[in-house]
Design goal:
- By secondary structure, the chain is α/β, with parallel strands linked by helices.
- It has one domain.
- It is built from 12 helices and 7 strands.
- Strands 5-6-4-1-2-3-7 form a 7-stranded mixed β-sheet.
- A hairpin with a 2-residue loop joins strand 2 and strand 3.
- The two termini are about 30 Å apart.
Length: about 280
């Protein structure tokens, strides 16, 4: 049984170390005790620049051992772009197939200009496809600079593409927007400055507390003060990883195109928990 969990809100920006956040937690008495929440720039040997913080993140992930890490970026592309070589081969050869983010962006579009979407994107109503204009750099650098080196080194298990091996970190794809929709919180506008946005972030944190997360005051303060909402997104990714711990096995034959893990829907939303 995995008892340590992490949530990664990823970024493909040049200064990704300031935009991407990582949260950690440990399960105790069926609740999740949040241990930390920080930007990637604060990891050991890291910094603000993408070429510095992403290798630091990869080194940090290899040290997690028995942990489940929910990552907020696509682990795969639509089937017609990936081909039939299998997911591991796709990830290992990804840097050669797509020399730049723009190559990926073009490959993920139909000739008429429409976005190619994976089945999991359609099933879970993900807001953006892997090659979307707002997401393709995140997809590109997540696969190239995190998944590809970790898979080649055989230092992690990426579920459900690979079998989970005890002693290694387990990585899954999550999407905070999908999780919020499952919790009936999707319409909240918590990203941005101002009193209203601050109150929305506070409401999401209160709901996570109702769902079983113990968030210390220092972490809560960081999430509230981060107007971009990236700290909060990492906490939502952390909650998602913890909440799907019993759903990790996807029965074969598995669709190699990709899979977004998400919590089961709460009928009536989080507010109903207070009445039960």
């Amino acid at each position: 049984m995995v008892r340590r969990f992490c949530g990664l809100d990823f970024s493909g920006a040049r200064d990704a170390g300031q935009h991407a956040w990582i949260s950690q937690g440990q399960m105790t008495d069926q609740r999740l005790r949040v241990l930390d929440c920080r930007p990637l720039a604060e990891l050991p040997g890291s910094g603000a620049r993408r070429e510095v913080c992403l290798p630091a993140l990869a080194r940090w992930v290899t040290q997690l051992e028995d942990s489940l890490l929910g990552c907020d970026f696509p682990f795969s592309l639509p089937r017609e772009v990936m081909g039939d070589e299998g997911w591991e081969a796709f990830v290992e050869t990804f840097p050669q197939r797509f020399p730049t983010p723009e190559h990926l962006h073009l490959a993920c579009r139909f000739p008429a200009g429409h976005e190619r979407r994976r089945q999991t994107d359609r099933d879970l109503r993900a807001p953006f496809a892997p090659g979307n204009l707002r997401l393709y750099r995140q997809t590109y650098y997540g696969i190239r600079d995190l998944l590809s080196p970790l898979v080649r080194a055989r230092s992690v298990c990426v579920l459900p593409f690979q079998r989970p091996i005890p002693g290694r970190p387990w990585l899954i794809e999550v999407c905070p927007a999908v999780t919020l929709r499952r919790l009936r919180l999707y319409r909240l506008s918590y990203k941005g400055r101002g009193e209203r946005r601050l109150l929305e972030r506070q409401h999401v944190l209160d709901c996570l507390d109702e769902l079983g997360m113990r968030i210390p005051a220092r972490v809560r303060s960081r999430a509230l003060s981060d107007a971009r909402g990236n700290a909060l997104d990492s906490l939502i990714a952390l909650y998602t990883a913890w909440s799907v711990r019993a759903q990790l096995v996807v029965e074969p034959p598995f669709d190699q195109e990709g899979y977004i893990f998400a919590p089961l829907p709460i009928v009536g939303g989080v507010d109903t928990l207070k009445q039960s």
